[in-house]
Amino acid sequence: MREPLDPEMFDPVCPSDLSPIRFGDKWGGMIIRCLEDGPRRFSELRVPLRGITAKVLTSSLRVLERDGLIVRTERPGQLRWVEYELTQVGRSLLGPMDVACEWTRVHWDELLDAREAAVGATGQLSEAG
Fold this sequence. Notes:
Residues 14-112 form the HTH hxlR-type domain. Helix content is 44%, strand content 11%.
């Protein structure tokens, strides 16, 4: 049996959208991280991704599957059992994601300053930024 995902694996005060480097959509990189230690069920993914709705998680999983980064496996039986798992291509993203996360950590203060300056200048942050 696998260890459950840590509900605190993503810091709620650390906005994933702060990094200008994205893997998939807003949630794609976090979903990939959740799958790095093996397959997970939908309900397991929702634990650390507490800010995501079921509809958005479903959409993000479909995009990752379409792009060949994850595979969806449905196990037949009385109770439907669906798991998501990284493909070899998806697993190959873990190294570049580590580099992007380290880059973000190194430049965290500059990224925050730029974001705060943009918000201060307009009173709001645009979706493009």
